[in-house]
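Internal tracking record. Fields below are filled automatically when a chain is submitted to the structure queue. Please do not edit lines marked as system-generated. If the sequence contains nonstandard residues, flag them in the REMARKS field before resubmitting.
Queue: standard
Priority: normal
Entity type: single polypeptide chain
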Amino acid sequence: MAKLAFIGLGTMGYPMAGHLQKAGHQVCVYNRTNAKAQTWVETYGGTSAATPAEAASDAEIVFVCVGNDQDLYQVTTGEYGAIGGMQEGSILVDHTTASAEAARALNSACADRGLGFLDAPVSGGQAGAENGVLSIMIGGEPSTYEKVGPVIDAYAKSHSLLGAVGSGQLAKMMNQICIAGLVQGLAEAIHFGQKSGMDVAAVIDVIQHGAAGSWQMVNRHKTMLDDQYNHGFAVDWMRKDLGIVLDEARSNGAQLPVTALVDQFYADVQALGGNRWDTSSLLKRLQRG
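SYSTEM-GENERATED OUTPUT FOLLOWS
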């Protein structure tokens, strides 16, 4: 069992930190809203700290899961940031979906202090975090990954080291590219079926078992048909992720016409007031006319 710190108790981090505590580790948490950290302690045990640096001060591994690059820098390299409080030889694991550039910058900051670093964005959504079955894409040194792997088993169904630092974030970008295209295709299929007078639920019950099947189809078609979107991964967060993808594509020369188009479709959903709707709300955009 290890001494751990977990920084960021949002939709994903809250249950992830809980799984670590339930697995028998000693977990100290930090959250910008202290009341949420106190609620976590009351629920799971463990301890909380007033700053990221304090939470990280005696931890062997420090986990971070926050909103974006700016938040990430604030809790790691900013005033009272975690890196400043970490002991030489300890490891920082970043679960934030952030840029590859941020991953490389944090790796450099960690190296300067004799710390290990992994960029390790996750996939699986809130349900995956709560059920401890996330998929984790990791970049970093093999020796560092070997130390962290058994610990993250507490909330991961699968995890893989995919290359040097930054590779985890690049893999997550590929994941989001795939999701954007899949959700748009599903939305168009449902819209087409509705316009054609088909029993869409009956059709999907058949085609989800064939080549058209996907996680999105299986898990989102019913709520899409019921016009329910107040759940799941928010459009605002998807646009943040796609912005990271498109910035990286401009840097590496990749052509992503579908991804760029779907990003603009999500902008349309935001204009409809759907900032916090699930990403499957692309159907709502098609139905507005």
